[in-house]
Amino acid sequence: MNSRREGLRAARLYLVCGDQSDSFLSASLAGGVEIVQLRMKDRPDAEILDAARRFRRICDAAGALLIVNDRPDLAAAADADGVHLGQDDAPVQHARQRLGPDRLIGLSTRTPAQIDAAAQADVDYIGVGPVNETPTKPGRAAVGLALVEYAARRATLPFFAIGGISPANVDRVRDAGGARVAVVRALTEAADPAASARELRDALREAGVGAA
């Protein structure tokens, strides 16, 4: 197993964000974030690449993984650790051909069928959600904790519950079997992102991470 996959399996806290300041990113990483996904929809390629290269340097200093949303080409150009795809983004096979065997590919899932299908796809982890309604996914109904429970029973890959998860509700996600979570506003809108990250990590530490 390569070091990227070892890092993935050990990770509990995953931050998804747009272009953020160095100070925010460093604070989040210091608080316990282990994976950062740069998500800059509809921005020029050069702008995404500049941000990804800056994020790469900061993640390297913290020993964290960097994922780029949707764009395998830019992930490769920025020397990111992988790419995250939605169900309607670039095909997984295309991403794997572009990134090679050693980089990570994540895939969003929002139904039991998609979770089951991911086991047969060439991906390394899945996102499960949105658990709660969230403005980062406008118009998308929440899947609730039932899908987290399903993933805990059936997923053969590491999975990250996502969607409106915060320090106030992460215990319910954990108790449903979500040992790993991905967050956006819980950190990007926090007055103290390092403290919020620590609170999330402390809650997840009780869950333990299984073999998947």
Question: In words, what does this structure look like?
Answer:
With 212 residues, the protein is α/β, with parallel strands linked by helices. The protein has one domain (3-205): Alpha-Beta Barrel (TIM Barrel), CATH 3.20.20. Helices cover 43% and strands 17% of the residues. The protein has ten helices and eight strands. The chain has helices at 3-10, 22-31, 45-62, 72-77, 92-99, 112-118, 144-154, 170-175, 185-188, 193-205; strands at 13-17, 35-38, 65-69, 82-85, 104-109, 125-128, 159-162, 181-183. Helix 6 links the parallel strand 5 and strand 6. Helix 2 (22-31) packs parallel to helix 3 (45-62) and helix 2 packs parallel to helix 10 (193-205). The model has no long low-confidence stretch (mean pLDDT 94).
